[in-house]
Amino acid sequence: MGRCYNHHHSTRRHDMYALVDCNNFYASCERLFQPHLNGRPIVVLSNNDGCVIARSDEAKEIGVVMGTPAYMFQEFFKKNNVAVFSSNYTLYGDLSDRVMTTLAGFVPRLEIYSIDEAFLDMGDLAYTDLLQLGLDIKKMIAKNIGIPVCVGIAPTKALAKMANRYAKKKCKSVGVFYAANQELIKDMLEFTEVENTWGIGRQHALLLNRNNIYTAKEFTEMPADWVRKKMSVVGLRLWNELRGVPCIEWEFEPKAKKNICTSRSLGKITNDLSVIKEAISNHASVCALKLRNQHTVCRKVQVLIATNPHKLNHKQYSHSIVIECETPTNATGEIISYALKCLDIIYKPGDYLYMKCGVLVLDLIPQHHIQVNLFDVRNRQRDEKILLAMDKINKLMGKDTVRMAVQRFDRRFRLRADHVSKKYTTNFKEILKIKI
Known about the structure:
With 436 residues, the protein is of the alpha+beta class. It contains 13 helices and twelve strands. The protein folds into two domains: 1-191, Alpha-Beta Plaits (2-Layer Sandwich); 260-407, DNA polymerase, Y-family, little finger domain (Dna Ligase, domain 1, 2-Layer Sandwich). 37% of the residues lie in helices and 20% in strands. The longest helix has 21 residues, at 273-293. The chain is globular and about 65 Å long. The two termini are 39 Å apart.
């Protein structure tokens, strides 16, 4: 097993963390239900089939770069037998939930860092063989869900993130690396360039390179005062983390967002006000649901619309406006009403072909902190019961089963998704069929 080292402690470990990361997650999700794609390059495109946002290892090897505009590389994809997929966030989200649920069974606490990554707190696993635990995690997720993962284990979150990358680069066949002692941590720090260190952005990487600092190990040898002065307290926190001192707080519960935005390109450019109203209404509905899910209300609603700035032969226009709510709210109908008022104010008719629109809910506060307007005549207790019933039905029967009439059902604004796969795990009509 080479450098993927196992080390036993006879005393309680107070600080030990793991970072579990799904390998090429979106591509792996697509491959899971279409095993004939094994070994074939896969790319997943952004909303509206715009740019490449995920690649399999095979796609990376033939030179596909993140952010590649799909329309410019159609011939290249065809020539190299690349399987192209539209984003299928319903599928990815469901498989992510399954991965995270499985991970939660291994440790007392975990922090979901992104759709395909989670930090695991191993501090209380005093007498556990952590390398074996990492191998068990990898094996269990592959068996139960079918998604390949890598596991990095180290004394701090920043080192665990680094250990995960080290596992991919140096222990690829095993997929697990346990930085169990100072010698292994030193090897890992020397191997990792500053630009590939979690928490060091491009500007700070250039700053460090100008000062002849090229590896994470060299960064940890810099004086604390220099790091604090040049890279602020955030850089000093990372410096401490890489030296084995935990400084990055855990977020076992996601923090409530301060603002929420739902913004999308339209499926095709249009000057049809009714299509834009439908899109704005649906975006507002999504914002309202997100508010209710995190038990907050908004004080302000903002709407933005824009034409396509890349179409230089088209008339150009973009605008946004903010309206203050009479009473802070998370009610779908109210937020849609405010959003449509905004649209009426900023919409310009005529030859303008709109490409994008969005809704933002701003200035969020906890829903139990609402100060009702003196002249508010809405029956908010009744509204709350209706919304609760609506959310329950939609959760049980499917998204937007019950909706406001203005949202319509034909979704004329929907994004282009010419290569979308089936919702194998969440839609009975699209469930996988096996011929025996």
